[in-house]
Amino acid sequence: MNNIKIAENFYLREFECRDGSHQVMLHSELLRRLQQLRTLLDRPVIITSGYRNPEHNRRVGGAPHSYHLRGMAADITVQGIEPQVLAEAAEKCGFRGIGIYEAFLHVDTRAQAARW
After folding, report:
1. Which class is 5-115 in CATH?
2. What 8-state DSSP symbol labels residue 68?
């Protein structure tokens, strides 16, 4: 399901809600910037969390107004690149919301810049 190539290096299934429902919502700007990041790094960008439906978002402890709920956010990893270094590359690609965590990086396409 959702095995549709939507960019040079991404398939729609990568952005599905991780609750098994195959639901997906994806903002075009998020996809465009993730593809820019993939091209810049010349390494696969792994989406560990893309779209979340409200129930799944609550279950995983997501923020009530999370950008994941609108298909405007992704939690990502890139093998061999620490989240702090990945954040610097994400900023170069125009991501406005950037959250650095121990094992992954949150990126989103919110209107105003935010870092945590």
Report:
1. alpha beta
2. G
Does residue 91 contact residue 99 with C-beta atoms inside 8 Å?
no
Do 93 and 79 meet the contact criterion of CB atoms below 8 Å apart? Answer: no
| Chain segment 31-88, per-residue pLDDT in tens | 999 999 999 999 999 999 999 999 999 999 999 999 999 999 999 999 999 999 999 9
C-alpha torsion 8→98→40→18, nearest 10 = -30
Write down the domain spans for the chain: 5-115
| Helix or strand (DSSP H, E) at 77 | strand 73-77
- For the chain, the residue count is 116
| Distance from C-alpha of 24 to C-alpha of 74, rounded to nearest angstrom | 12
- Amino acid residing at 32: R
